[in-house]
Every structure is written in structure tokens, then in C-alpha cells.
Write a structure and sequence with these properties.
Elements: E1 13-16, E2 25-31, H1 35-43, E3 53-58, E4 64-73, E5 84-90, H2 93-105, E6 109-110, H3 115-122, H4 128-139, H5 143-153, H6 156-183, H7 190-209, H8 214-220, E7 222-228, H9 234-242, E8 260-266, E9 269-275, H10 285-300, E10 303-309, H11 316-319, E11 327-331, E12 348-349, H12 358-373, H13 384-402, H14 406-424, H15 429-437
Parallel strand pairs: 1-6, 7-9, 7-10, 10-11, 11-12
Antiparallel strand pairs: 1-2, 2-5, 3-4, 4-5, 8-9
This protein binds guanosine-5'-triphosphate, potassium ion and magnesium ion.
Length: 444
């Protein structure tokens, strides 16, 4: 066993690559050493490479299972790097089940989630960040997410990391040379050069680390918590923003208890909008639990939307959440005009009932979402794993800069290089493979 993957790559695997359920066409893909044999057995011979051919598929008993387009991708120039095939079947569940049964009878086994891409990585067809990008692309719900994932598939993060690793390798060479020359008692500034290079490189890495977590947030979605006193109109506002009655609205204070969450696409950024229980001291046990949940969600939120109603004075509980980072809303301007400021902030004047001011609020929310998550067009870190690797590389560079002896500096530079290698999957891969591929879907 090569040690790079826990699953046996001697197996030939297959999986439905298109979505489950009934569809016009279902794509079954397979990969592995027996893919050619299995395809030939099913289709009565191997078709031309990478050309779609219409074939009758038969099982071992000779029964026709379907008429399908079949594609043959001999390795190593395939997605996985192995011999692979695709069967474009009629999309009925019985057809898919019959063909899957025939493949199993030929010795292939159902693939694990992410196993195709895992094999592509193991066979050097892509680096780890590109593999992660594939998972993100499949999961992308919005334009900005799609752009970010595609950039990562295209190698934006790997290219950046590779360039840093190249520079580090040169620094290391300088440092090693400095050690050699020092033994020969020759004066040299190679060590100083290496040190200066480390300083510059660390500054660049730190700049990327200081990205405000935008890439990660775009992957996960931005969380916006709607807070306010009972009856401020939080649930009405949520409903108005999503255009449906997602939350119960009533004239009774304390209507909302559980947190009600809806998903919105704002300027290509996925946003979860959380409606919460109105903040107040009074109320029964259930309402108090609701208020605790409101506070918890607000603490977790990337953005707080503080809602006040023009027909009541601003309440202290909600005012406590008004910060320069919060969006402040004065609702019910159809009843009374909005105050100039609330808690020192100019509020957005809206009416959840008449719709006044909602476009401006939507624009403000979109701008905040893009500020928090980016638009998907930079080579950003998209996972905690990336951040951890770069943080470690930066720490080792700092160590190299401070090293009292050139030998210690060399050691630290080498450690920094290893940290960068972990990001793209060149080093230490055993420990992270399962983490990376666990959130893939089956068939990818
Ligand atoms: N006139 C007017 N009434 C509104 C507006 N928005 C909400 N209301 C009314 O205010 C009352 C409370 O609205 P909700 O949306 O339930 O308020 P809430 O903040 O979710 O209340 P809780 O869930 O109890 O905390 C309802 O009777 C709404 O119809 C508005 O813009 N103008
Ligand atoms: K209410
Ligand atoms: Mg409510």
C-alpha cells in the first residue's frame, strides 16, 4: 500500500455522477484498472477514445439493459488519471439500477464520496487546493461562490503558494551557501540576503492572512441576525426581504421565539438571514429561551441588523447592539418619520408594510455582504486548513529571521517550506486526505 490513500485504488469504482431521482439522462461514471474490460463487456467492445458512441448495453446473460451514449477515457489522460468511462443512460431509476448491478457483477464497486477526485489527486492530476475547488464548485449556490471555486480549480491558490515555495527554496539555498562560506572563513552577505528575503516573504503571506476571512465566509455564507424589540417588525422585514411568509407576523409582542432562518442571494453572496425573538426583560420561560437564542445568534453573526420602530422609543436592549459595524433600521415610517439618528447612527428608513426603503436596505445589505465575503475574484484562502498552513509558514519565517545561528535559520526555512507543501498536498498528505475529501458528494 502506497500510504497516500486509505482506499484501495486497485478497485474499479462506479457512481452516478448526475443527481439522483428521475431525469432525462443519468451519467454513470467508472474508473479503475477494470474500467475498459467492464465497458467492453457492457457495450460489446471498446468505443473510440473520447468519442461519444451509441451502444446497446447488455448484462452477462445478454439481456439489453439500455441504449446509451458511452465514452471511453483511457488513462492517464482522464479526470482520475486511470482508465475511465462514462455511460449516459436513460435517467430512470430502473435503468440506473440495472446497469449498476451489471457493473457490480463485473467486479466494480460503488465509489465513496469524493473518490474520483481523490484518485485524480493521488495520480497527480491536480493539487489539493484544486481538488477542494472541485468540491466547492459542485456545492456553489451563488455566482460569487462559483467564481471563487473556479479560480481555485484553475490553480489560483496553488500558483500563489508555488511561487512562495520557489522563493523560499532560493532563500534556503542562499542560507546553506552562507553556512558553507562561513566554514571557509569567507566574508559573505548571503545570510543577510536570506534574512531580508524571509522578511519580505513573511510580509506577503501576512497580507494574505489579513484578508478578513472573506474566502472562508464566501464558502460558508454570511450570517445576518435581525435584532430588535418585540413588535419592531423584524419578522415582517424578513418576509418582505425574501418575498414570502417565512415567519409568523402578529400584533402580539413576543410572537417569534425560535430563530427563523432563510437563505438569500445578495450580489452573488449567499446570506443567511436570521429572524429572532424580540429583546425584552419580560415574557415567559419560552420567550426568555428565545431571547437567549437571539443573543447567541447575534454573537455568531457577521452582521447585526438592528431594527427599531418609529412608533416606540429606541429600547436599551437593542441599542446595546448598535455599533459602527451594525446596520440600523427605523421601521414603520408609514406611521411616523424616522429619527435623524439612533444610538449615534443614521438609520435606514423603511416600512416593511409599504415596502418603502426596502431597495436601499437591500443595497446596503448587498454591499455589506460583498465587503464581508468578497466577490469571488481574488486568490483567497477558502478553508481553515489554508489559514493554518500559512500561519505556520509565517511563524517559521519569523523564527528564521530571529535565528541566532545560520543552521537554525536553515531549519526554520525548511519547516516553512513544509508548511507551504502541506497546503497544496505535496507534504504530510496522509493526515489531511480524509478531512479534505469528506465533504465531497458521491460521483465526484
Ligand atoms: N404600520 C406598520 N406596521 C408594521 C410594519 N412592520 C410590521 N408592522 C406590524 O407590527 C406588528 C409586529 O410585527 P412583527 O413582524 O410580528 O414584529 P416582530 O418584531 O417580529 O415581533 P416579535 O416577533 O414579537 O418580536 C404586526 O402587527 C405588523 O403588521 C410597518 O412597516 N408599518
Ligand atoms: K409580533
Ligand atoms: Mg417576530
Amino acid at each position: 500500500m502506497a500510504g497516500r490513500g486509505a482506499m484501495n485504488t486497485a478497485d474499479t469504482i462506479f457512481a452516478l455522477a448526475s443527481g439522483g431521482g428521475r431525469g432525462a439522462i443519468a451519467v454513470l461514471r467508472m474508473s479503475g484498472p477494470a474500467a475498459g474490460m467492464a465497458l467492453a463487456a457492457l457495450a460489446g467492445g471498446l468505443p473510440k477514445s473520447r468519442m461519444a458512441s451509441l451502444r446497446r448495453l447488455r448484462d452477462e446473460a445478454g439481456e439489453v439493459l439500455d441504449q446509451a451514449l458511452v465514452l471511453w477515457f483511457p488513462g492517464p489522460h482522464s479526470y482520475t488519471g486511470e482508465d475511465s468511462a462514462e455511460l449516459h443512460l436513460h435517467g430512470g431509476p430502473a435503468v440506473v439500477a440495472a446497469v449498476a448491478g451489471a457493473l457490480a457483477a463485473l467486479g466494480a464497486r460503488p465509489a465513496e464520496p469524493g473518490e474520483f477526485t481523490r484518485r485524480a489527486f493521488l495520480n497527480g492530476r491536480m493539487d489539493l487546493t484544486a481538488a477542494e475547488g472541485v468540491a466547492d464548485l459542485v456545492a456553489a449556490e451563488t455566482d460569487a461562490q462559483r467564481r471563487q471555486a473556479l479560480r481555485q480549480v484553475d490553480g489560483a491558490l496553488a500558483t500563489l503558494t508555488g511561487a512562495w515555495a520557489g522563493r523560499l527554496t532560493r532563500l534556503l539555498a542562499h542560507q546553506e551557501a552562507a553556512i558553507e562560506f562561513a566554514e571557509d572563513d569567507l566574508p559573505t552577505d548571503l545570510g543577510d540576503q536570506a534574512r531580508a528575503g524571509a522578511v519580505a516573504l513573511r510580509a506577503e503571506i501576512e497580507q494574505h492572512l489579513a484578508d478578513g476571512g472573506r474566502g472562508e465566509r464566501l464558502r460558508e455564507g454570511v450570517l445576518v441576525a435581525i435584532l430588535g424589540a418585540p413588535n419592531a417588525g423584524k419578522s415582517s422585514l424578513l418576509n418582505a426581504l425574501v418575498g414570502r411568509e417565512a415567519a409568523i407576523v402578529s400584533a402580539r409582542a413576543g410572537t417569534t421565539r425560535d430563530v427563523v432562518e432563510v437563505r438569500l442571494d445578495l450580489a452573488g453572496v449567499p446570506v443567511t438571514l436570521a429572524d429572532t425573538a424580540g429583546l425584552r426583560e419580560a415574557g415567559d420561560e419560552i420567550e426568555q429561551e428565545g431571547i437567549r437564542r437571539a443573543h447567541r445568534r447575534a454573537e455568531e453573526a457577521d452582521l447585526v441588523l438592528a431594527v427599531f420602530a418609529t412608533d416606540a422609543p429606541p429600547d436599551a436592549e437593542t441599542l446595546a447592539w448598535v455599533t459602527p459595524a451594525a446596520l440600523v433600521v427605523a421601521n414603520k415610517v408609514d406611521l411616523r418619520s424616522a429619527p435623524a439618528t439612533i444610538g449615534g447612527v443614521v438609520p435606514l428608513a423603511i416600512s416593511a408594510r409599504s415596502g418603502e426603503g426596502l431597495d436601499a436596505l437591500r443595497a446596503a445589505l448587498s454591499a455589506a455582504a460583498v465587503r464581508l465575503a468578497g466577490a469571488g475574484d481574488a486568490a483567497l484562502l477558502t478553508r481553515p486548513r489554508h489559514r493554518a498552513a500559512l500561519t505556520e509558514a509565517s511563524a517559521w519565517l519569523a523564527e528564521a529571521e530571529a535565528a541566532a545561528l545560520p543552521e537554525l535559520g536553515s531549519e526554520a526555512l525548511r519547516a516553512a517550506l513544509r508548511a507551504l507543501g502541506r497546503l497544496t498536498g505535496q507534504v504530510g498528505v496522509e493526515a489531511i486526505l480524509d478531512v479534505v475529501f469528506r465533504d465531497f458528494c458521491i460521483g465526484k
